[in-house]
User: What shape does this take?
Amino acid sequence: MGSLTGKVAWVTGAGSGIGQAAAVALAKEGATIVLTGRRSAPLKETAAMIKKAGGASEVKPGDLMKAAAVTKIAKEIEKKYGRCDILVNNAGLNILNRQWAKLTPADAELVIDGNLASAFYCTTAVLPMMRKHKDGVLIHTSSVAGKVPSLLSGPAYSAAKHGVVAMSHTINMEECVNGIRSCVVCPGEVATPILDKRPVPITPAERKRMAQSEDVGDLIRYVACLPPHIVINEVMINPTWNRGYVASLQRGKS
Ligand SMILES: NC(=O)c1ccc[n+]([C@@H]2O[C@H](COP(=O)([O-])OP(=O)(O)OC[C@H]3O[C@@H](n4cnc5c(N)ncnc54)[C@H](OP(=O)(O)O)[C@@H]3O)[C@@H](O)[C@H]2O)c1
Assistant: This one.
């Protein structure tokens, strides 16, 4: 029996990268996982990984930028399980033309909806279920760009991820009296498919030195397994070989 046996976890962005690793890690602790992303095929791959590890999951595809789609999935979770104990609010995206010089209103909307509005929709959908049980953990994937604005990540992404950090802290401020805990995870560079959208391509050797999906997935598992009387409000996780630091060291030497 794992420490999350009997719990239901909804993991968004579960078909790849951090979400996939978190889903597998939580399943290994005994939670039943609801897997969401827009594409079914990658979610089915995650479900197969969970099955192989002896865990339980189900695939519920949907576009989380659409509030109605989020409400529908949350209602299905409530109907089937009567609870959602853990939300891993992880789905996110970025764009290639991210600098102000190239940013279009449509791309700004995509990045803000895909990282911030979607996170709000999922949060508002699960809180009523958590309040009912006076228990619940929300873990949101923001970014280091959600702490320090980053031109590498782009203005729209930085602004949206700052919003996710603020969202998480306000959940604790209001919902602590209901036994609900919220943690915002701020990763630096993690070797996942989102990096394929970087304007300057990243080499396989550079990806190897970065944090890996499993590193962040394990952190999410740790936060989800904390005892109910404590919360880790915010955590940053970075590769030791931090390319930002290394670049500034090199600038300092020249
Ligand atoms: N990798 C990094 O360096 C890094 C650093 C800091 C923060 N992050 C954040 O970490 C989170 C996970 O990203 P990742 O790095 O693991 O990259 P990823 O592999 O691209 O994962 C993002 C996932 O989100 C899903 N998704 C995107 N938009 C969605 C939508 N509208 N509705 C439903 N699902 C959606 C994608 O699946 P579909 O395309 O099938 O929908 C995909 O599985 C993101 O929030 C990202 O911003 C990543």
